[in-house]
Amino acid sequence: MFAEEIYDLPFKGFENIDLKKMLMGPSETFYMRKKRTREEAIREYINSRLYDRFDYEYVRKDNNQFVAVYSDMYFRQDHFKNFCGFIKEFAYFDYVIPVKLEKERLNIKRCLWMLRYDIGNFFLMKKIAMPFEERIYLIRLLGMIRLYVERMSVYIDNKGYKYGLVYSDSCPYENILVQMMKHKDMRTATLQHGYFSAHNIFKGVEFRASVSDDFLAWNEYTKDLALECGIPEEKMKVLGIPRYINEPVMQQETNDAVFSVILGGRALDEENKKLVNYANLLAEKEGMKYFLRYHPACTGTEYSNLVNEKYFVGVEERLESIKEMCGKSRFSLVGSGTSVVIDLIYLNQPFFEYKEDWDGKEYQKRSNYFGDIERLAEQVESKCSIDNSLFEYYCTTKKVKDNYGKYFESIMN
Hints:
Radius of gyration: 23 Å
Number of strands: 13
Structural class: alpha/beta
Oligomer: single chain
């Protein structure tokens, strides 16, 4: 957590901004990052000042009063594809999206502008006690946020917009944009991009950091999780899963001799190791084979030394969709706290979720959890199917475009 005194400092460019909300995600997850040496932290800082990695595309249409933004702070190709596929379905939106450069571009003007800003922040923070890596990270982060705001202001200011939509307002770039939009009397909303819960490693920070007027949720499940984090019920708008705005054809055929193992991100390293171990045990017990699906943040090699080659059929292709993955496996093993379970329910793919402390009293209306190999084997034998009654609670609708369209139109009228 960042020092409390940080939030009382008069950082230039952040006047009338709730810094606690803007920095909540980075503050609470800073020590989950891989620890940098002093030299690595300095090198990371210098690199962030010297180079552009993205340009921006602004799609502007006459008389549009709605604008949508996907930022590049936590750029991931799958999320970017989801956002673009969704927003292009609604002609009354202008939008701003990042364009990733093929090669980093040296930008001396950027560097000089940011150095002047950083020096001011260094002296502001000078008397606050904090570790070196945290200090340089915060100076780097504040400068990047400020630069992003300067660039986005060209697209957002004085355009007459009355509604702003972002992909994730727990991301500092989009959080401050939402706060600035609200100061312009715009109504604001954030999409949901993943699974958020007070019980996972991030403790529902995606809900708690949210500053938008409306939170556009996938399902009633998300709404329940948000209410548990103290989000007002009227803020939650349950509309469906944006990435299924164009409903996919359901996969019918599966390979009964193979199952998939869906791994989490780097922060779930210990759980990932347990999942691979359970896969080895289950494959031996059931006479099956398995493949690994790595999280997009992983390289795809982290757990190769843990697999039993006798039962391992390889790593899934990185560009393969979840739907295509389901067609190659009888069922999936997943870790706790992944939004992939929603896709699996939507696609009618059986799955079993690892949860070490499951007590049988979860409110999520399902019981396909396991915490040891005995329960996993029992689940596989008895529940290798999806209960159709789960769809409404976890997926809401297949008419995604209709639901979002009605919500957007209600704001226009």
